User: What shape does this take?
Amino acid sequence: MENPVVEVKNIGKLYPKHATKILSLKDRYLKKERNFAGQWSVKDVSFNIQKGDSVAILGDNGSGKSTLLKLILGVTAPTTGSIVVNGKIGGLIELGAGFHKELSGRENIYMNGVVLGLKEKEIDQLIDQIIEFAELKDHIDKPIKQYSSGMKVRLGFSIAIHVESDIILLDEVLAVGDKRFKKKALAAVKSYLKGKTIIFVSHSTHQVKQICQKAIVLKDGQLVYEGDTESAIEFYENQTIEIE
Ligand SMILES: Nc1ncnc2c1ncn2[C@@H]1O[C@H](COP(=O)(O)OP(=O)(O)OP(=O)(O)O)[C@@H](O)[C@H]1O
Assistant: This one.
């Protein structure tokens, strides 16, 4: 068997007491409030992901899903354990994160592309498709600060799926935006990303069933189930009923 593309071993993240966080666009959009007391957001989690797997991360609010994605992406350091990623990793884990609001949509595409490891020439070749998919032709030269949340989501999503990567992380990206774009985005994830390794966070079991073959369930930062999507959803839903 090939080496796993993502190897997560006993990973843990302890946020110190009084840690503060500027609310992400996603949080603001979803009007969420968070309580940042010192605690293990992710605790002793281990799993492997093989090439071509599409894996969902299921769990209630605050169960550690986004933190786990940030650990895999390397934007936050683990307190314990280790993560090995074999391949180029990309995706969209916080809506609009990495956008500069004073710059135009077009300039932000270049900025993001460079951050994701592309050369300017490569971005030149992709930019029309990115703008077209995001349906932002008429707005692309306006500063991002004039964009609605939906427009930012469309742009971020479009960049994420057009930039080549081996492993793509998608955090609730299909939860916002209007119905029509959501449908188009779901279809894009299904077709564009065939054969790629996908890690997908979503509260929509409907979307999870359409995209992922496997799933893990987190509860209070711990991995409590790992298996095929159907059985993981069943486990997750039963667990939620018990609590209610
Ligand atoms: N920067 C931070 N500093 C301190 N605590 C944090 C920080 N980010 C997240 N947390 C805490 O870690 C826990 C897990 O949060 P996380 O965002 O990973 O959960 P989630 O499962 O993605 O939640 P949701 O479904 O609401 O997006 C929460 O209790 C949260 O308050």
Notes: The longest helix spans residues 120-134. The CA atoms of residues 43 and 54 lie 23 Å apart. The chain has a mean pLDDT of 86.
